[in-house]
Amino acid sequence: MGKLVVIEGLDGAGKRTLADGLTKALHDQGHTVATFAFPRYGRSVHADLVREGLHRRHGDLTDSVYGMGLLYALDRREAAPEIRAGLYTHDVVLLDRYVASNAAYGAARLRQRADGEFVRWVREIEIDRFGLPVPDAQILLKVPTAVAAERAEKRAAAEAGRAKDAYESDDDLQARCAAVYDELAALSWLSGWRVVDGAAGVDHGALVGGLVHPG
């Protein structure tokens, strides 16, 4: 049975780059890896509704924190069989965003903390009710909010059809979300967390060793 490892962080933190680096390091150490990224835009109707909502294409849908949270959760529920299959056939399943993203962003939108009602609801829906696999480890990729915002801006300018959405454009939301992420990591929410400085160079090999062979 493989290990389920999740990368979390703000929009523009560099999660995709870290996922690529960890995947290479895992392969170099002889491990097999399956990768997923959430939301699964272009693959899931729920994810596509999220994207459309974030660009205000469905009226006031985005105003409902619980409504958006449920769409994110349904996207993962649909992907759960693939994740479980990956855990049976690979040493590591590496996810770019997972349940904690839903918890952090929703709580931040409601100005709640990690021990608040929304985070409890996310766990009840995604883990208890939908039965999503629980992570073995979560990585919080931390960068200053200003750095994350600048990277998100550059990505939006460089990638066709990748205009910043309602969450990425809200600097105050991003700052509150960063605080909730810190609290989730401190609480070891769902699993142990490793906090990585995304503004400094990441030693992918050492990080992989600590995840796959902890202790």
UniProtKB/TrEMBL annotation:
One of its GO terms (molecular function) is dTMP kinase activity. Residues 7-186 form the Thymidylate kinase-like domain. The keyword Iron-sulfur does not apply. Its EC number is 2.7.4.9. Keywords: ATP-binding, Kinase, Nucleotide biosynthesis, Nucleotide-binding, Transferase. It catalyses: dTMP + ATP = dTDP + ADP. InterPro entries: P-loop_NTPase, Thymidylate_kin-like_dom, Thymidylate_kinase. Pfam families: Thymidylate_kin. It comes from the Bacteria. GO terms for biological process: dTDP biosynthetic process; dTTP biosynthetic process; dUDP biosynthetic process. The keyword Kinase applies. GO terms for cellular component: cytosol. Phosphorylation of dTMP to form dTDP in both de novo and salvage pathways of dTTP synthesis. Belongs to the thymidylate kinase family. This is Thymidylate kinase. The lineage of its organism: Bacteria, Bacillati, Actinomycetota, Actinomycetes, Pseudonocardiales.
